């Protein structure tokens, strides 16, 4: 297992390098000149040329990329074009809020999907099983910005059960933090919970017809033990894969959810940076998302060996 993890870590290097090339090229193709945006109405030929030289934007694109990559290797993501603050410092201040929202939405999606998917598989021919299956279709189809707006309208504007947005750090007021976390966490977890429910249902339906399940029943094991101790464990393997992919989906969804609920995370930071053509900030946020996605997939592969003893990453097997 250790050798496999080392190989996977080494494989991350070319993947990250390829992602950096794509990111750099896409941002260069994005309409808008960051120099003119930063200077605003005070732009002249002289100060535009001076700022372009200061930022290194007067160099050929390969030189710009090489200099940018060299700074990244040293841990320097550059400075924001909006406020001249370090990108690493800006991201570091926003990461806790995004982690709180992301972890809460992941946990919530799992707590919804596992019992609901199991219920939908066991009682698939009942009305309740049909409703559970319908939830997956609605959850996948409903856009997060629309669902979030509905939650704000019904639970914040009408019922006044939760605030419509804003953020309070948990160390300042834990109760207010939880109160403000509910609506964005539910919004961000909807799509993941619906997709996980569908995967768990289909995986469990397939597993319940395997020979070892029939053997367990023939031995006289209780149905609950057959389902939860034997069938569900193997049925969760595809869901674990999806959970790793869901990390990237949550970061992507945080762009919208954090903007709707005024949640001060890196998703909202990226949206603000895109509007201002703050390319160093956008590059830093996307590179962080790429890194998080690769680490999540590595953890998923390690979890396979725990869930299914037949899976081994040794060379001889």
Task: Please outline the helices and strands.
Blueprint lengths: L1 H28 L4 H6 L5 H11 L5 H13 L13 H36 L4 H15 L2 H15 L15 H34 L3 H8 L4 H13 L1 H24 L5 H10 L3 H29 L10
CATH class of the largest domain: Mainly Alpha
Report on the biggest sheet.
Answer: none
Structural class, by secondary structure, is mainly alpha
CATH architecture of the largest domain, please?
Orthogonal Bundle
Q: List unreliable stretches of 5+ residues.
A: none
Write the H/E string, N to C. Answer: HHHHHHHHHHHHH
CATH topology of the largest domain: MetI-like fold
* Helix content percent band: over 70%
Q: CATH superfamily of the largest domain, called what? A: MetI-like
Proportion of β residues? under 5%
> Nearest-angstrom radius of gyration?
24 Å
The quaternary organization reads as single chain
Number of domains: 2
Number of helices: 13
* N-end to C-end Cα span: 12 Å
The 3D shape can be described as globular
Mean pLDDT: 83
The count of DSSP E runs of length 2 or more, i.e. the number of strands, is 0
Kindly summarize this structure in a few lines.
This protein is 76% helix and 0% strand. With 317 residues, the chain is an all-alpha fold. It has two domains: 2-73, no CATH class; 94-307, MetI-like fold, CATH 1.10.3720.
